[in-house]
Amino acid sequence: MMKQFNEIKEKHPDAILLFRVGDFYETFSQDAIDASEILGITLTRRANGSAQYIELAGFPHHALDTYLPKLVRAGRRVAICDQLEDPKQTTKLVKRGVTELVTPGVSINDNILNHKENNFLCAIHRYKNSYGIALLDISTGEFLTTEGTREYIDKLLANFSPKEVLIERGKRKDFEENFGSRFFIFELDDWVFTSDAANDRLLKHFETKNLKGFGVSHLTNGVIAAGTILHYLDITQHHQIGHITTLSRIEEDRYVRLDKFTVRSLELISTMNEGGKSLLDIIDRTVSPMGARMLRRWLVFPLKEVKPINDRLSAVEYFFKDVELKQLLEEQLSLIGDLERIISKVAVNRINPREVVQLKIALNAIEPIRNAFLASDEPSLKEIGEKLNPCPVIRNKINAEINHDPPTMINRGGVIREGVNEELDKLRQIAYSGKDYLLQIQQREIEATGITSLKISFNNVFGYYIEVRNTHKDKVPAEWIRKQTLVNAERYITQELKEYEEKILGAEEKILALETTIFNDLVTSLVDYIPTIQLNANLIARTDCLLSFAKTAKENKYIRPEIIDSDILTIKGGRHPVIEKQMPVGESYIANDVHLDSNSQQIIIITGPNMAGKSALLRQTALITLMAQTGCFVPAESAQIGLVDKIFTRVGASDNISLGESTFMVEMNEASDILNNLSARSLVLFDELGRGTSTYDGISIAWAIVEYIHEHPKFRAKTLFATHYHELNEMEKSFKRIKNYNVSVKEVDNKVIFLRKLVKGGSEHSFGIHVAKMAGMPQSIVKRANSILKQLESNNRQGDVSRPIEDITEKREGLQLSFFQLDDPILSQVRDEILSLDVNNLTPVDALNKLNEIKKIVSGK
Predict the structure, then answer these.
(1) Phi, psi of 355 (to 5 degrees)
(2) Domain that includes residue 826, residue range
(3) Confidence check: pLDDT of 158 > 50
(4) Last residue within a domain, chosen from 513, 538, 569
(5) Above 60 in pLDDT, residue 766?
(6) In angstroms, rounded to a whole number, what is the distance separating the alpha carbons of residues 245 and 534?
């Protein structure tokens, strides 16, 4: 057996091999050591030949669904090696083979998958400076591809978050230099990444002559990546992939460009701080798993065309107003479940009886949704209604053949309804009416023999038997065969009982075989409905997302934004969708107005104290714009959104120590990416740019960047620039499309009240010391900081920042805290001693004596 194990292990050296032995899955050697650590199961040693021991760790086969997810989540590949023949049918070693290779990116196991997230497998192929990418979620059948620059691929990797990435062998270093080391990577041979190999594999799967019908034939590198994925499915023993019915192109032109910095800093999907809430957390009110996955995708791929955005907004508005329809949808959607993943299980022949019944329930629930949409006067909903198909034929077939509450496993029996198969009904009568028949035999034998305590029972050793107490054994008929002697009784068998036993046990085996055949035939007939039901799942997911938007809008008092094809962005009474939900009880969020355009107010420089709300204002502007272009209502009194095609953010300080990048280096990298990719419709947010370096360097860089955006020869990107560098307020005088605003505060009795209102004009005070006081800084430090601040301000009051940036530093040169301005009595005494000296008439000996006196003052001696 160990020889058999080693032969199979050689083929999968990088996977943990779960080796089926009887009722257990066993692991051996290093696999056992790794599995025991990950799973917390006992590691043992067993003799393996002369003077050799081998490590061993295992678990019961029925616990596979418990342990397999733990191995995969730990980033391990798992080869499941099953017995390929019945041990009862052979006298030799049972044949074994790998039936499935489960990896982080290839799994259809419900316990491994997160129902709110796609589980994408990704392949990347690089040729010179162009990258091809393909993504597949085998659990849903979604298969996507495209190609582009390194920056575009980096953005897609961040937005799709693949669980596993396939690359060419030997290219790991190149991949990690370009995209980081956060992905689970698997390397394949270079021949897999060739155009011929990829095309052959794709054409074989889709059974077409070329790929023109999918609109991807011109994407050479993307096609190679897609072919690589199908080849990987072959390697991992996933051959039943009929649910992968199309290969779609990711159309970059349809979506707003959001780079990974923007997705992270706006906290669209996840938060940067533990315990925080993301935008997804606030607006996700979806009912179905498909809806949750689609909404996640919508957030990182906002639309940039007026009509599809308005179609979504109109549907949301319709749900918003029609309370009855909204209630109907909530009821029916909750019944549908994960239709997308259930129908995928049909293709891979992994669907169980309960999931088939769930499929029927889902198709039943689609019927009233379809009827309601067809009756509506909203065109986008009517279109969905026309495409929905409740598949009445297969739905009725499931209803007629499968019990309403079947067991999960087909081998438990009781799956097929009565009346479906005449032979099955007869066999059930034999098998399940046996108790009555046995009672009849028992009663007859009692009467015939006079043994009143006689009883008929069953055991696994010799089947049905008659038990007679010793007090009556002289009454036993001669034709009964004694089988077992107990202390107080004897057990006998008869020819009649043996014949009945064969009949009843044979019936049970035949029942299971017949039920399995009928069920498999039903699943086979479901295969033809895969594309139709996949379309249903997509339409239901879309409906769920729009309903979620309507529910969120109602609860949070959002309004419908006006989407226009222009460069104007006007938000009145805008609020931050996440912060407003986390306000203390009784406190309301202070709304603000923002207006940006290309002609009069292209760039707004926002100054104001710490904690006044500058960062929140920047983020809420981006979030409102993004929500509007996703098709969601927005937190504002009114919003006129001129379509943006790119949203850039440089928000917050962070560093990347592992790559040797300081906070300032990260800032500059992100700022460079923004400035090199500007467009006429870009929305740019800069928050505290330049904090990571000296004041003068920071001011100079910030000034130059704002000037560059304003003076760009082609594009007038709409920009919000929050800063503590009050010197930048001077730019308004020299650049006509730059305007100054500040987030106002009120100072009462030396205390700061944050009004959080955006008003025109710059601000010259940061109130940083007040914030330190609020944070619980010791009083002595707060008092000392105030004292130093007054000295700095009095020394610097003569400064003039009205001149160009290159002149600013001249007036600030030499700005340094004087050593003798410290309020220390010893230092004051030293100062007085030095000031009283007549340096012109001081001899060297006098100077040494005076220095000795000063030394004694300082040392306290």
Answers:
(1) -70, -30
(2) 821-859
(3) yes
(4) 513
(5) no
(6) 10
Same domain, 779 and 645: yes
The answer as to whether 230 is a domain residue is yes
Per-residue pLDDT, averaged over 324-352, amounts to: 93
Task: Kindly report the average pLDDT of the chain as a whole number.
Answer: 87
Q: Is the pLDDT of residue 807 over 60?
A: no
In 3D, which of 416, 475, 420, 484 has the Cα closest to residue 448? 475
Q: What string of DSSP letters covers 340-377?
A: HHHHHHHHTT---HHHHHHHHHHHHHHHHHHHHHHHSS
- pLDDT of 754 reads 66
Query: In total, how many domains does the chain have?
Result: 6
Which domain CATH number covers 706? 3.40.50.300
**Quick one: 614 and 707 in the same domain?**
yes
Calculate what percentage of the chain has a pLDDT beyond 90.
55
| 108 occurs within a structural domain | no
Does a structural domain hold residue 577?
A: no
CA 486 to the chain's CA centroid: 64
Closest of 8, 6, 121, 20 to residue 52, by C-alpha:
6
Residues 830, 753, single domain; the answer is no
pLDDT of residue 183: 93
pLDDT at 110: 81
> If we measure between CA atoms, which residue out of 365, 363, 364, 385 comes closest to residue 373?
385
Residue 518 structure tokens = 């009928």
Query: Do 723 and 791 fall within a single domain?
Result: yes
What is the rounded distance in angstroms from the CA atom of residue 599 to the CA atom of residue 579?
Answer: 32
226 with 297, same domain: the answer is no
Tokens of 366: 């689609």
Parallel, antiparallel or unpaired: strands 164-168 and 121-127: parallel
pLDDT of residue 806: 41
Do 166 and 132 fall into the same domain? yes
Residue 778: is it exposed, middle or buried by C-beta count within 10 angstroms (0-12/13-18/19+)? exposed
What pLDDT is attached to residue 184? 92
Same domain? 619 vs 536 = no
Do 449 and 495 share a domain, yes or no? yes
Cα 298 from Cα 798, distance rounded (Å): 54
Q: Which residues contact 856 (CB under 8 A, 6 or more apart)?
A: none
Contact (Cβ atoms closer than 8 angstroms) between residue 143 and residue 232: no
pLDDT tens string 393-434: 999 999 999 999 999 888 888 899 999 999 998 888 877 776
Q: What is the pLDDT of residue 799?
A: 44
Question: Residue 335 pLDDT > 90, yes or no?
Answer: yes
DSSP annotation of 106 = B
Residue 685 has what pLDDT? 93
Residue 353 has pLDDT above 60, yes or no: yes
Domain with residue 503: its CATH number is 1.10.1420.10
In a domain, residue 330? The reply is yes
pLDDT in tens, 4-37: 888 999 988 889 999 998 889 999 999 999 999 9
**Distance between CA 40 and CA 66 in Å, rounded?**
12
Does residue 849 or residue 770 have the better pLDDT?
A: 849
What is the DSSP annotation of 468-536?
EEGGGGGGS-TTSEEEEE-SSEEEEE-HHHHHHHHHHHHHHHHHHHHHHHHHHHHHHHHHTTHHHHHHH
Cβ-based neighbour number of residue 578 at 10 Å: 23
- DSSP secondary structure letters along 667-681: HHHHHHHHHHT--TT
- Full-model pTM: 0.81
- In the chain the first and final C-alpha atoms are separated, in Å, by 88
The confidence score (pLDDT) of residue 750 equals 59
